[in-house]
Design a protein that fits this description.
The chain is built from 13 helices and 16 strands. It is an alpha+beta fold and 375 residues long. The strands form 4 sheets. Strands 1, 2, 3, 4 and 5 form a 5-stranded mixed β-sheet that branches. Strands 8-7-6-9-10 form a 5-stranded antiparallel β-sheet.
């Protein structure tokens, strides 16, 4: 459309563009402000003429009366205009303004032509400015929502991830690396998702980066489903998560009348169930926080029952469990004990039932835990 307007300009041999013809579709399709678009198009048109006539002082002016953008050139008043179009004769200048004298300057409509290369320059400048304006608008609209859960609808699935349309039909991107492993998100599917990052400028085509695999996403889900967590009567002290498999969260109540674990689970699991459904069946262990590290370690290893915990260093502990509890403590591919260790911030050595010899501790190397033996 802009290209055709420039061709019209060439036919008239006068640098005048009817603004309403250029921006009508942009206002409707892109939702941009009409006044802002006037400035953007003026900037683009001026860049086109400056590319070809770099030695002249030019400006693009919007004429409100006729809704036109006119490119003008500054001309100096001289006795005889030999250096066109940078000069104007005194006689012609006086026809424009009788007060003008030699050495004065005046802005005159520019009538020289531009070609395809300059037209391309204008289109590039306008497109770039529009992208910048749109990016700034998205940043302003979503910056305060960064780190919170937003709702969206899956718009497109790609090899690298999913495009999700948020409120206002704004596109956001969920990389596969930040999705729950193995989950399916069909087009048209409504999803809750963490707005991980709002970029000032798009990275590639993406400006809003989403996330469903982080511990923060799980924490925000509990804030949505459990009012006591949202109101800070219950605090989520720590979260450890292996997305798609299991998560562990440690909670503490700041109200002696509130049971933190029972409140988070809800009657017959009514509060935790929507979270489990959102995570596609990922298991969640909710434990009560304790300042007693030994007690906290024993709770973190659930569903295994722990016989004894012995702290042997600031960041290491030996733990004894019965033989029939070892597979539960370790978990599939060592994941339960790994999550417990991350939750409490202490390395856990799983000991043989009848020994306190560290040589008998269970290694967390996954190669030592065949999957079939740990189910």
């Amino acid at each position: 459309m802009l290209l055709s307007i420039f061709y019209k300009t060439q036919e008239n041999q006068k640098a005048i563009v009817r603004l309403s013809d250029v921006i009508a579709n942009l206002v409707e399709e892109r939702g941009l402000d009409h006044a802002v678009l006037k400035d953007v198009i003026c900037e683009g048109i001026l860049a086109a003429y400056q590319k070809k006539y770099a030695d002249l002082e030019l400006r693009a002016v919007h004429k409100s009366k006729d809704d036109e953008i006119v490119v003008e050139v500054m001309q100096e008043v001289v006795p005889v205009a030999d250096d066109l179009p940078a000069t104007i004769s005194l006689r012609k200048a006086r026809n424009i303004d009788k007060t003008l004298g030699l050495g004065d300057t005046v802005w005159i409509p520019f009538v020289e032509k531009i070609g395809r290369i300059e037209i391309l320059k204008a289109k590039q400048v306008i497109a770039s400015r529009i992208r910048t304006i749109e990016a700034l608008a998205v940043c302003d609209a979503f910056r305060e929502k960064e780190g919170t859960i937003v709702h969206g609808v899956v718009h497109k699935a790609e090899r690298s991830g999913w495009t999700i349309k948020l409120k206002g039909d704004v596109p956001a991107f969920l990389p596969r690396s930040l999705a729950i492993p193995g989950e399916r998100l069909p087009v048209g599917f409504s999803v809750r998702i963490l707005l991980k990052e709002v970029l000032a400028e798009p990275r590639g085509e993406n400006q809003l980066i989403l996330d469903r695999s982080s511990s923060l996403f799980l924490k925000r889900l509990f804030e949505l489903e459990v009012p006591e967590v949202y109101d800070r009567h219950i605090e989520i002290k720590r979260v450890s998560r292996i997305p798609g498999y299991k998560s562990k969260i440690a909670v503490v109540s700041h109200d002696s009348n509130i049971d933190p674990v029972g409140t988070c689970v809800g009657f017959e699991g009514s509060r935790v169930k929507p979270i489990l459904d959102e995570l596609g069946g990922e298991k969640i262990d909710i434990i009560a926080w304790s300042d007693d590290l030994e007690k906290l370690i024993a709770s973190a290893l659930r569903p295994a029952e722990v016989d004894r915990v012995e702290l042997i260093a600031d960041a290491e502990a030996n733990v004894w469990v019965a033989q029939d509890q070892r597979s539960l403590a370790i978990g599939r591919m060592g994941q339960n004990i790994s999550l417990a260790s991350e939750l409490v911030g202490v390395g856990i050595n799983l000991m043989q039932p009848a020994s306190k010899n560290p040589e008998n501790e269970a290694s967390l190397d996954e190669s030592n835990f065949p999957e079939g033996e740990l189910e």
